[in-house]
Design a protein that fits this description.
This protein has 200 residues and is α+β, with helices and mostly antiparallel strands. The protein is 22% helix and 20% strand. It is built from seven helices and ten strands. The chain has helices at 3-6, 24-32, 49-56, 100-106, 147-153, 158-161, 174-179, and strands at 8-12, 18-23, 36-39, 46-47, 57-59, 69-71, 75-78, 82-85, 124-127, 142-145. Strands 2-1-8-3-4 form a five-stranded mixed sheet. A three-stranded antiparallel sheet has the order 5-7-6. Strands 9-10 form a two-stranded antiparallel sheet. The longest helix is centred in the first third of the chain and has 9 residues, at 24-32. The chain starts with a helix and ends in a 21-residue tail after the last helix. Bound molecules: zinc ion. Zinc ion is lined by residues 111, 113-114, 116, 145-146, 148-149. Zinc ion (ZN) is lined by residues 111, 113-114, 116, 145-146, 148-149.
């Protein structure tokens, strides 16, 4: 996949509440299947697949700014920035319940001790105050750790193990979790309700 295809599109539910970000390719697939429509972030105009193609596509041999377009067989389709799902009206829980996946997203996929990027399948959750010593499984006591740091730490506090947390674990806001480390785009701001601390 090209770089443009991997860029992110803000995804709103049916009633325009932001729920996640998806890669461009997935966003276009959702629109193609009629499961979502593209929202123009300036005019809030909605486009289904046919409308998006008729207004935002050019022949593949035409001169366009590659960055904003994704190439299909004969067309270059403009990259959407925001889509809204046709049916799904679900809403992320405002309390943002603790989850393993959430910890991964909050911590941007980085071990909170050594800073290396950890693959989702290789991630481990470290209880800062060990479970065996009364620590709980919660946003404030759990961080993403690589296997090596987690082993080194074992049933000790970071201090005892000679490790330092890169950042104190925190309860993320809903928008922070929706973005999950994806850099906030200017055109998304109007759709995200809470103030998001932009992390790069
Ligand atoms: Zn580590």
């Amino acid at each position: 996949m090209t770089r443009v295809e991997l860029e992110r599109v803000l995804t709103l539910n049916r009633v325009w509440q932001p729920i996640t970000t998806v890669v461009v390719k997935q966003a276009l697939t959702l629109v193609f299947r009629g499961r979502a429509r593209v929202v123009c972030p300036e005019t809030y105009q909605l486009f289904d697949w046919a409308q998006w193609l008729s207004e935002k596509a050019v022949r593949a041999d035409a001169h366009v700014i590659e960055h904003d377009y994704i190439r299909t067989a004969h067309l270059q389709v403009r990259k959407p920035e925001v889509i809204t799902l046709a049916r799904f009206a679900g809403y992320p829980n405002t309390g943002v319940p603790y989850s393993r996946r959430g910890v991964f997203e909050r911590d941007n996929g980085q071990c909170q001790y050594c800073g290396i990027f950890v693959h989702k399948r290789a991630m481990t959750i470290d209880h800062v105050q060990p479970l065996s010593r009364g620590g709980g499984t919660s946003w404030l006591n759990c961080v993403l750790a690589c296997g090596r740091c987690n082993n080194q730490k074992a049933d000790r506090t970071p201090h005892e193990a000679g490790l330092a947390l890169r950042r104190q674990p925190f309860q993320p806001t809903r928008d922070e979790l929706i973005l999950g480390g994806v850099a906030l785009q200017e055109s998304w701001k109007a759709f995200l309700k809470e103030t998001v601390k932009v992390t790069t």
